[in-house]
Write the structure tokens for this entry.
Amino acid sequence: MNKILENIFETKKFTNSKNQTIYIHSETRKEQCEYLQNIIKTNNFKKSIEIGFAFGISTFAITEEIVNNGGSHLVIDKFQHSDWNSDGIDLVNQAGYTEKIEYFEEFCYVVLPSLLEKGRKFDFAYIDSTKQFDWLLVNFFYIDKLLEINGMIVFDDVSFPGIRKLLRYISQFPNYKVHSQNPSNNRISQLRKLAKFLKLLPYHHKLLSIEILKPDFDLGINSHCVVIQKINNDTRNWDWHVSF
Ligand SMILES: C[S@@+](CC[C@H](N)C(=O)[O-])C[C@H]1O[C@@H](n2cnc3c(N)ncnc32)[C@H](O)[C@@H]1O
């Protein structure tokens, strides 16, 4: 990992170009950044997209590895100037990545369709922005169409209920598989053991919630950070549905 980034993780701060000390928060943890870097390196990904810039910590980590592979990065965040004092941009400029990052200060529902219209393609996506189901479903809808086959989408904060619910749905798409989690898929809960017996009851599918009938653990999403991989084009029938 780049020494500047290592130092930021150690001190939890950096100095911006206006000589202000910026104390970081809301950032992707070091271990998770290394996990992202390892995925990018192993798969030789070159075209990455990210939603959620903040102080630019994950952007820095992703760009470092993407640039090592000869690629470039694109990041979307509506609030970089208004909420983050442009310090994310400042940091990645200091790191020397100005030419390697495209930045859109706009809402994702505006940027993503415009990228599709331009015929852009990506092989790696990191989503760490709002935690609302509907916003993230729209993000996924477009990123899926922008993603190369074998490309991966990484969701942070899967412990938030809106994101967990979304993952319950999309992890069951026939053209996706759960690639991995960080930390690895958590332990089976006691509830699941109980559900095994409750499932013997008549009408159990009406009596038990879908979360019990189909636990997060079994879907491979019982973690904080989940990576899904697109293994094919979407060939679902118009009436395809799955309980989630
Ligand atoms: C948790 S922070 C991202 C942290 C960053 N990934 C890192 O590791 O340093 C969430 C970011 O999402 C942005 N955000 C929130 N809602 C958004 C939206 N609807 N579209 C785009 N970005 C959004 C916020 O401005 C904030 O920068």
